[in-house]
Request: fold
Amino acid sequence: MPIELTEQSIILLLLVAALVAVAVNRLRLPYTIALTMVGLFLGFGSGFVDLQLTSELILLAFLPPLLFEGAINMDLDDLRQRALQVGVLAIGGTVVATGFLAGAFLLLGFSMTEAAVLAVILAPTDPVSVLAIFKEQGVGVGLRTLLEGESIFNDALAIVLFLIAVEFAFPEPGVTPPGLTGGLFEFGTEVGIGVGVGLVVGYVAHRLMATLDDHLVEITLSLVTAFGAYLVADGLGGSGVIATVAAGLLIGNYGTSFAMSASSRLALDQFWEVVAFLVNSILFLLIGLEFEIALLADGPTLVAIGLAIVAMLAGRLVIAYGLLSPFVGAHGTMTVPKPWRPAVFWGGLRGSIPIALALSLPSREVGGINVLALVFGVVLFSLLGQGLTFGPLLRRLGLSSIDPEQRQYEEAMATSLVLQATLDELDRMQRRTEVEPQVHEALRTDVEERLAVIREEMATLTRDLDSVRGARRQRLARRLASAQKRALTDAGRRGALSDETVRDHVRRVDVALAEGASAPSIAADLEPGLYIDADDEVRSDDA
Reply:
């Protein structure tokens, strides 16, 4: 395609995306869903843009920046604590979803290998769509980590299973498809190489950033890290998805904290926010544009789409209410609150990965069914049916922070963080003689006065509003539990504590957290005074 046509197509797509963003702010629709709907509408007019959605475009151009942006904002401590839950959802959930979908396709008369290919294509959930909705709804870190972690790792698993299934369904002459042992080895190899490459690339980027104080170079390094980790891992036969995520987790949790100044961190966050917005915009517009509504006129295709949707939801029901059951109210682990289960059930959206896998098939027809029509139909239901109703469901379950009281506190907290960051940067500039003492003192006095007012407002909100106080208590409890367990495990590694003592006290911390104690401690109890309501009790007792 001539470069001029490509440039025109991209500019036209971005113009449409900007107009959709303006409309979304008024209509309160999920942005990615609105883009897909607009793309569908524009797709009725042929030749809107001369840019085709291909498997390579999704996997090599769109996926790395979106995964990296999500990973640098993911809480690594929470991911560690929920590793078992994420693993159960990613591995067990993929197996369950594949089983239900394969059974549905077998009922329609597909062969075993054909059913396996179609099931694996539709099994992975989409981190892009879910993350976009979570951001819009302000969902807390726990549920966000659970679903985002599941989506990222089941994508990697599904891609490996897809490659194995294709070898069976479309065998090349003279090539023997791998058996179960070979498939497991291939999966382990892909994951191992992906993790290793991601950590190495992320660590090298982190060390390079530590030697710099130039946000332009640091942002450039982060861009190289996102695409470089994916390409290197993919070239070595590993999972590019996992490599990008591993590198992003390292940069987001260590690089930004220990290798960047406050201004560089801000610039990095803003850069990747813009990149994610642009890539999301083009991706979901192209998904809508590529879908041909006329393909749904075929009766057998409609039946296959309907049965696939039923199987997908049935499998998701088993995942949310079956696989997660041991973690609901469990002791000794990070518990899964009951309202999370319907969110996990309805939040298993399908998006770009199934489309990328379908586009990469050697044949567009499997068992007499147009695979693209089938996959696009299921994805369209997921994005529009589930996507449009997921936000209201989160609010109904009380999992959204759009609550006015909580939003008021968050606004004050955001102002407090900005002012504190301003003070830190002013002090840093003074130490490096980048600001005159008189200017530093005047600015610092002004900021400190405003910060004192904001902190008093936050204290008042926390004292007077039950919803704010409860949310703060839960968030602080998680942070304290994480710090306490890190201290225990570090002491165990140094030999200061025996493994038995470490396990015993870690269990007590987890039990206190699971039982909803005001905050966990080594003795599963804290003296009064840590929380506002505890202070109130002390004052009332003194009175």
